[in-house]
Design a protein that fits this description.
Layout: E1 37-42, E2 72-79, E3 90-92, E4 114-120, E5 127-134, E6 145-147, E7 168-174, E8 185-192, E9 205-206, E10 221-227, E11 233-236, E12 239-244, H1 258-262, E13 267-273, E14 282-289, E15 295-306, H2 314-319, E16 335-347, H3 352-366, H4 375-385, E17 395-399, E18 411-415, H5 429-435, H6 438-449, E19 454-458, H7 461-473, E20 484-485, E21 503-507, E22 521-524, E23 529-531, H8 545-559, H9 569-573, H10 575-607, H11 629-632, H12 635-640, H13 647-654, H14 657-668, H15 673-685, H16 689-697, H17 701-718, H18 720-726, H19 730-746, H20 755-766, H21 770-782, H22 789-796, H23 817-825, H24 834-887, E24 901-906, E25 909-911, E26 916-918, H25 920-926, E27 936-937, E28 944-945, E29 948-955, H26 987-991, E30 1009-1016, H27 1020-1034, H28 1044-1047, H29 1049-1061, H30 1068-1077, E31 1096-1101, H31 1115-1122, H32 1141-1152, H33 1156-1167, H34 1180-1192, H35 1199-1217, H36 1219-1224, H37 1232-1240
Parallel strand pairs: 19-21, 19-22, 20-21, 24-31
Antiparallel strand pairs: 1-12, 1-16, 2-4, 3-4, 5-7, 6-7, 8-10, 9-10, 11-13, 13-16, 14-15, 15-16, 17-18, 22-23, 24-29, 25-26, 27-28, 29-30
Helix pairs in contact: 8-10, 10-15, 16-17, 17-20, 17-27, 17-37, 18-19, 19-20, 20-21, 20-22, 21-23, 23-24, 25-37, 31-34, 32-33, 32-34, 33-35
Amino acid sequence: MATPAFLASSLPYLTIPDAVSEGGAMAEERPPRLVDYFVIAGLAGNGGPIPEETWVPEPSGLLRPPRPAEPITDVAVIARALGEEVPQGYTCIQASAGGHPLELSAGLLGGTQPVICYRRGRDRPPLVELGVLYEGKERPKPGFQVLDTTPYSHSANLAPPGPGHPRTYLTYRRAAEGAGLHALGITDLCLVLPSKGEDTPHTYCRLPRNLNPGMWGPAVYLCYKVGLAKANTLVYEAELLGRYPEEDNEAFPLPESVPVFCLPMGATIECWPTQTKYPVPVFSTFVLTGAAGDKVYGAALQFYEAFPRARLSERQARALGLLSAVERGRALGGRDVRTRRAIAVLSRWPAFPAFRAFLTFLYRYSVSGPHRLPLEAHISHFIHNVPFPSPQRPRILVQVRAEAEMSPYDNLLLCQPVSSPLPLSGASFLQLLQSLDPELAITLLLAVLTEHKLLVHSLRPDLLTSVCEALVSMIFPLHWQCPYIPLCPLVLADVLSAPVPFIVGIHSSYFDLHDPPADVICVDLDTNMLFQTEKKPLSPRTLPRKPYKVLLATLTNLYQQLDQTYTGPEEEASLEFLLTDYEAVCGRRARLEREVQGAFLRFMACLLKGYRDFLRPLTQAPSEGSRDVDNLFFLQGFLKSRERSSHKLYSQLLHTQMFSQFIEECSFGSARHAALEFFDSCVDKEMKVAQRMAQKSAAMPELWARCLLGHCYGLWFLCLPAYVRSAPSRVRALHTAYQVLRQMESRKVVLPDEVCYRVLMQLCSHYGQPVLSVRVMLDMRRAGIVPNTITYGYYNKVPNWGEGWDGSLCQGCHLDVHGAWQAVLESKWPSGTPGGRLRWAKLRNVVMGAAQFRQPLRERRQRRQQPKQEEEEETAAQREAGSSQTERLSDTPGSFPPPSLEILLSSCSLCRACDSLVYDEEIMAGWAPDDSNLNTTCPFCACPFVPLLSVQTLDSRPSAPGPKPAGASGNRDAPVPGGPGPVLSDRRLCLALDEPQLCNGHMGVASRRVEGGAWAYLSPLVLRKELESLVENEGSEVLALPELPAAHPIIFWNLLWYFQRLRLPSILPCLVLASCDGPPPTPAPSPWLMPDPASVQVRLLWDVLTPDPSSCPPLYVLWRVHSQIPQRVVWPGPVPVSLSLALLESVLRHVGLNEVHKAIGLLLETLGPPPAGLHLQRGIYREILFLTMAALGKDHVDIVAFDKKYKSAFNKLASSMGKEELRQRRAQMPTPKAIDCRKYFGAPLEC
């Protein structure tokens, strides 16, 4: 077997080390390969003569006349009425495509009778595009020239004479100079008359402007065809020239049909004029489907090489134009012979962009040189040493060239596909939408659903596979069961005459010789045209109306966003793009890809909604006939449940092979059970509304912070049932939840969905609180949220307002009958007959009268309660006085006992890539709007990492805790949170207020049992997904069990962190205490869930719980050391000499004098330039802020004002040092997204 010239050096002698060979000992431990085979396809032969017989495809159908050998290079307009003749070499268009006579001026007096002519040739670049210009209404497109005069210098206006008719001219665009023999160009022109029943010919592009815009005469439209006009070509069937490795993989043998798919238009021998430039290699993709339905993905690169004349016979040479047709045997000069070949890779993964980059590199490598490494070494390395991305290595950057001078094409980035239950495919929904408008894409969806014969064609072979894969993927969960060939070779073109449905993609040049079959729907991706020969063409109007309108609106919106995501191939292949802009650009594309796919998925979910209700279970042992769809599915019942206007569509769909297979898989199970379960969840709740809301909010800093805040409130309301069940007064707990709801609304959070309102309505229904349910509904409507069926159902489940309801359900609700009915009376009253209005007026008067009668009762009740309220106010004042004395840190330490259990939480996490500490608001800003992504982004090095939530529990109780004294929780002198702060005269004690030894006025602490750990810090999006899964699997009761902290620590500690962060009431702190005490003695009631609040204290810290002794100490810790202020943790490591007290005082002095830029400069100068200088794990902004808070006290520092000063100082320093240098030395302030997160999540944490 012959080997191509550029691979002839050492391909047969490739050797692979034992460690990476097929049978090596390490083969089982290695991840799966990205590529399994490398092949070469072309014209076979060992240097001898080639066969005389050429291979020409002969599918059924009428043959078209031979295509022109030369493209159209010029177009002209002549005026017959002015005596102009057709120029020499030009062809005149005298009739329409249907043979009707043409007269553009419609026989009007004064008309010039314009006629369009064109000329073919190769003396100049061909025309590639035409247009029609209405003078005065628009400007010519860039690159177009206006044909405003005839060859005889008269006006080339095509419009009839007369006022009101815009002057109409042809415009054209020509290919660039030196485009070469293989440049696409216009190969044919025609005119169509729609009034005569003529339509655009197949594979032609029709201009939208009418050439006869006047009132008289029929409308005339110009159509042109773009193609590759070339002659002197011999076509042979491609064969395998070489492969690597030589032996087949048992699990994945090399298919025999690979060569014809690598060269679908055949292995050609062509005659070119001398000095013709080689065309750019053509990239194509294909899919091979096995008997079991498994797919093999291939990618090929077609190129030309020189072919020796000696291998041609006289007959072949004459056919190629190498011999004179007049003088027998005389060779013609100025001709070269070329042959077309291809290199390809085969894989089980559709990584087409990486395959394209690798094959392009091989081709460029082969035509350049010399090189130190042979080409075969790169092939061997790519096959054996480049794995498919895995969760351990989700991104792999491959540099395929070892030389110093690298091209942008020498880098390729492999990314692990997004984890999804949807089947993996090579589909590109963006290319589908770019090539076809939304209306046409939906028409193709209808054609696939009804199993029509579908033929997709294009001049770009790499587009066919991605579009065809999208066509079979958009009908998920249905699976296409008929013939499927995304890129069909000419040797297999007979499939177009098959009597079964199919989806086939083919090169548009096939139609240069053959007409399409009559019963096939043809889709031209280059002209955005669909050709149907049926009497009743397919119309998407037969689809269900509402899902169709939603799908069309969604696709139209996404179609308008596609132009903003385009980047050129050279830019995409550059190393700078891969390392910088790849995430942003490809992230936008991936988002749009998911949204388009999600739109089709939602449509299919609506189309098949409720199908499981009509599945028929088997009542007997399975037999041969039991797998019939009639025995497994109630077809007529399902059809009657659909809207009548769509019965025709459903009748066709229910009798397709793919629907029968779908029902069989649902009834008996299959390998696609995970995908089918996912579809069932989509049918129930369509798509994740919360994640879509998060994706929209992630682009705006303020919206992102409000979105995270809304998810946190959603988490609290998901835990609300457990909180209400454990509360001493469930009615009071419900009203507490309502106050949280009002607080949430006042903060203008971005709610992911209506779960907050729904949960509260459900609890109001369960505990008999109709008044509160009405208020929640009104608040929901004021917020602009329309309740869905589920929420409205919970609302309607409240007890009856009418007979038997006496207002007893509102006892303890702080509401009365008047307030309850007022919610109804303020609503819009129904209008109708006068009798109806009269009855409503009577009812209104009765209600208002009852409310007036109850008013004296309320006043009497208030007078009785007034002495009791005064006594309570006096008691509260005494308690406040005692609290004030406590907070002034009296000289009698130990007068109040410390909490039995103290919990310390910190989300500050270390980025190991740059050894920097990332704080809570920066972690929030770096999260992605994805409920499956645990990573955040480091603000210093932009590397993704998983943040950790550090936890320490300090238990001061004895080993065997006994019963507490009865009055322990009723101490009137206990400190009240939020009371006045300490006097500022005692500076040392004031600054030590935040320390645990002093925060409760207790200087000495007994020995404590310290336990700690760290768990993944989850974004509210991820945490909600995990919480919903936990509640769904184990019930909401699990959230009130003492075993929760040990059984689900990640969920528990994250919930505790967020609830404490937002100061939301919860039972979670008590669960920690209960988990230490063991199981409760009795199942109900649950007093252990509501212990003395003073016995558990939760503190949220801004900085790390345990400092790293090998790092440089933070400045605020050094300040407390120098000031001899007691601290929670003593610094365990050495202290650099340069970080002296004088330095700290200088920094504070500059900050106090509003000279923050001098403080920054002083720190940068003291630390020194990296990497020789001191390395602080905290940024300069964080060091100065923490130092200021430690010196002045947290309550005496306005962080908003500090941020403004720091930003001004940063800009001032950037003018002299440069922003990039300041960023490298980590002197930048947090991003606007981080600042907004800190703003919306409340006051700063403890330092």
